[in-house]
Amino acid sequence: MNRQFDGWNRLSGAAGLPPGAIPFIHRLTASPAFRDLFREGMALVEEAAAYLDGPGRAESRALPRTAALAYATESMRLTTRLMQVASWLLLQRAVNEGELTPNQALTERHRVKLARQDLACAAETFEQLPATLRTLSLRSLRIQERVIHLDQSLVCARTPAVLARGSAVAAQVERLRAAFSN
After folding, report:
1. Where are the domains of the chain?
2. What is the model's pTM?
3. pLDDT at position 140, please?
């Protein structure tokens, strides 16, 4: 077992998971799928930065005033969105690599503000923006949704009420076992 699984298992046991329970969400954050998400997210950060610092500047200068204002707003929101995603991904990777314990990650989590964002402008104004900015914005919204979903799943898995409630399937199996054991 690698350090990540040991760490999450210690946290899960301390949080009151039944013995033998498998914290699937924690395994997901250490899986190849998470590594792919991490690479995708960080590549998107780099791609957006390169665009905004290079071709995006030139494209924004050629826009009419209303579209230029929308460009500035959307580019700031894109940057903010991607920095939130990158911060969360880096925090999870630090846990996976044993640089942080799961409890330390929980403590640090409050510094990462994951907030759903919509596009900064109306659809007709958004269509006036350069195609590359539109594509980057839409891709960032999709990856943000995936990260928020994972984050909520991790929080839910750590919530004592959820842990105490137990599995609905396990409850049904126990009812069947009790019914047939008499």
Report:
1. 3-181
2. 0.71
3. 96
Burial of 26 from C-beta contacts in 10 A (0-12 / 13-18 / 19+): buried
**pLDDT class of 33 with cuts at 50, 70, 90:** confident
Integer Cα distance of 174 and 181 in angstroms: 10
Largest CA distance in the chain: 80
Q: DSSP class of residue 169?
A: H
User: What token pair was written down for 20?
Assistant: 């033998």
- Rounded to the nearest angstrom, the gap between the alpha carbon of residue 14 and the centroid of all alpha carbons in its chain is 24
Fold type of domain 3-181: Helicase, Ruva Protein; domain 3 (1.10.8)
> In the 8-state DSSP scheme, what is residue 98?
T
Q: Is the pLDDT of residue 3 over 50?
A: no
* Count of Cβ atoms closer than 10 Å to residue 29 Cβ: 26
Length of the chain: 182
- Would you list the DSSP string of 30-87? TSHHHHHHHHHHHHHHHHHHHHHHTHHHHHHHTS-HHHHHHHHHHHHHHHHHHHHHHH
Is residue 143 within 8 Å of residue 44, measured between CB atoms? yes
Q: What is the mean pLDDT of residues 130-144?
A: 96
